[in-house]
């Protein structure tokens, strides 16, 4: 991969992510700011965190009363988020599941599905995975997809030709049934990010927030339809 500066890719996705998480310090991580922005005003329900990584999002949601299924391809990541939840007295609210989302997807229905920086250097049909996430929403449920919209100086992928899917491209790629879904947000906000060495840079997030309609026949003047 031209411009790739991260760990070696020849071991395959499971070994790659497992080695990565084993080499990371098992410390508490803050929640992603776009999740906080969207979810801090929501009433708690049942959430699915795709690619839970260090567990910051799952722990934050659980601390606000959500019941969370935290999913990652790395067994180490899943074990750590469950352990951290237990340490904080949130063990009954966080369930970890190991999934390679190229081959399996969690069961159940959810009020919120959180997919933060759901990128991988390996082949993965992201549209299919995110469509499965959308279809797992309960009526009125939300799917939040936050992608990188630019590369930071410390990013692994420094390929100058790298393409970052826009929110509209992500929405189109879901290929969902017309009339059942409402786009609440599709924008590209910027934020000041901090790298692993403390360096700072302004980066762009590509944010898509869609809702499963409670009444598919109802018209909503405040948001777009995925079939539009």
Word description of this protein:
Residues 48-144 form the Methyltransferase type domain. The model has no long low-confidence stretch (mean pLDDT 85). By secondary structure, this protein is an alpha/beta fold. It contains 6 helices and 9 strands. Strand 7 and strand 8 (200-212) form a beta hairpin. The protein has helices at residues 13-23, 33-39, 56-63, 75-87, 126-135, 167-174, and strands at 46-50, 67-72, 94-98, 110-116, 137-148, 181-187, 190-194, 200-212, 224-225. Strands 1, 2, 3, 4, 5, 6, 7, 8 and 9 form a 9-stranded mixed β-sheet that branches. It is 25% helix and 27% strand. The N and C termini lie far apart (36 Å). It has one domain (13-225): Rossmann fold. The longest helix has 13 residues, at 75-87.
**Which CATH class applies here?**
Alpha Beta
- The percent of residues in helical segments reads 25-40%
Q: Strand pairing plus helix content: what structural class?
A: alpha/beta
CATH topology: Rossmann fold
Rg, Cα atoms, Å: 17 Å
**Average residue pLDDT:** 85
Number of strands: 9
**What is the number of domains?**
1
- Quick one: overall form? globular
How would a crystallographer describe the biggest sheet? 9 strands, mixed
**Total helix count?**
6
The termini sit apart by 36 Å
- Report the β-strand fraction as a percent range: 25-35%
Order of helices and strands: HHEHEHEEHEHEEEE
- CATH level-two architecture: 3-Layer(aba) Sandwich
CATH superfamily: Vaccinia Virus protein VP39
Low-confidence stretches: none
